[in-house]
Amino acid sequence: MAAKEKNCYIIGDTVTNLCLMMAVGNNNCVAGDVPQEFMNLAGTLTTTNIILANWQNPMWQDVMNRALRSLSSRPFSSNFIRASIMAN
After folding, report:
1. 26, 49, 60, 71: most buried, per Cβ within 10 A?
2. Nearest-10 Cα torsion for 82, 10, 40, 85
3. Closest CA to 61 of 31, 36, 86
4. Is 16 helix (H, G, I), strand (E, B) or coil?
């Protein structure tokens, strides 16, 4: 059996679902969820600045909240509708 080709449904600027092709040469597809691996971003922020290195989590959370507000405004707002950021 051939591998299923994947396309996607886009509303506005946002990918809402995947379109999983049923068979080669067949234009029918089944809508599938976008895999979780593409829905989450994780990372580590490292600093060598002694002042920043001593900040407590509430201060970092404030910085991350400002970054989220920036991402949630134009032109990226449709991509970060349900976004959240957490400082650990």
Report:
1. 60
2. -30
3. 86
4. strand
Q: Give the separation between CA 74 and CA 61, rounded to whole angstroms.
A: 22
Q: Are residues 17 and 2 in the same domain?
A: yes
Per the CB < 8 A criterion, the answer to whether 29 and 6 are in contact is no
Q: Are residues 75 and 51 in the same domain?
A: yes
Together in a domain, 87 and 47? yes
Asked if 47 contacts 63 with a C-beta cutoff of 8 angstroms, the reply is no
The residue-averaged pLDDT of 45-66 equals: 91
- What is the span of the domain harbouring residue 6? 1-40
